[in-house]
Amino acid sequence: MRLTLRTAAKLAGISTVTARKYMAREPGRVPSIGEGRKRRYPPEAVATFKAMRVEGDARHGRPRGDGGAVRRSAVGVECETPSRCGD
User: Fold this and answer.
1) What is d(CA 79, CA 71) in angstroms, rounded to the nearest whole number?
2) Segments forming the whole domain that contains residue 69
3) 0.90 cut: is pTM over it?
4) Phi, psi (deg, nearest 5) at residue 26
5) Alpha helices (H) along the chain
6) Which of 23, 29, 56, 82 has the fewest Cβ atoms within 10 Å of its own Cβ atom?
């Protein structure tokens, strides 16, 4: 099975624009077949995009999997999501 860039990015949990940025930053790392509009990506490309996302998050100091962390709002009330904290 061969995937379009849009499909591979969606399966990796990133946007198509982000996938393009990753490919521009590290040409040749993401496996592909064909050129131009006919370019397709094997399922292994999804794992590569996921790895690049984790590496980028680590580089920017954003640990993965911390979605349930409790935060304190400006008034000292504990809350689970930033939208509820008023951030």
Assistant:
1) 6
2) 1-87
3) no
4) -130, 75
5) 5-12, 16-25, 44-59, 82-85
6) 82
CATH of the domain at 64: 1.10.1660
Short-list 44, 42, 50, 43, CA closest to 19: 50
Distance CA 30, CA 52 (A): 10
E strands, the chain, in order: 71-72, 78-79
Gap between the Cα atoms of 30 and 15, Å rounded: 15
For the segment 3-20, what is each residue's pLDDT rounded down to a tens digit?
999 999 999 999 999 999
1: part of which helix (H) or strand (E)? Answer: none
Say how many domains are in the chain: 1
